[in-house]
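1st attempt posting a full record on here, be nice pls
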Amino acid sequence: YKKFYDGCDQIDKYDVIKRIKENRKEPNSRYLLLISKSSISYHLLSYILEGEKYSIIIGSKFKQDLNSEEYQFKIINKIQLFMEQGGTIILKKLDSVYPALYDLFNQNFTVTSNRNYARITIGKTINSYSYVNDNFKCIIDQDISDIEKQESPFLNRFEKHIITFESLLTQELIEESKKIFSI
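the predicted structure (as tokens):
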């Protein structure tokens, strides 16, 4: 790209944390999809969101819950409450609930009296509109091993960042960690 556009700045290293913080500050930014290995994203998010109001909802692994509309209703009700209150919600392993929230994820809001409302759909017959506070942000925490199971339309709704230890550490710290692991 630089070969064709001389005025283009080249960045040697993409700063993931800086980009996530920029997203957090931008009022009209897309919601985030963080792709990582295991629990690194939780520690990173707790660092980034320090001092902010946030909540984490982690989905159940029980088959009874995954196939239950009652379970989906409970989770969606928790999400709706947080949408109304504002702040940040982190969702993890809620694949059975995500389809109900597609309009929210798209930020396809219906505006009434200068307030945003997102359509929440459950099943084939239940549609409701829920108020979305202007201070509401959503982060989906997705394990890298499960990313291939997600459909492209779902992935395209978000600003995506891949978080690895390598992307967070300096080259010097990476070399030091290699020395430690080789002992």
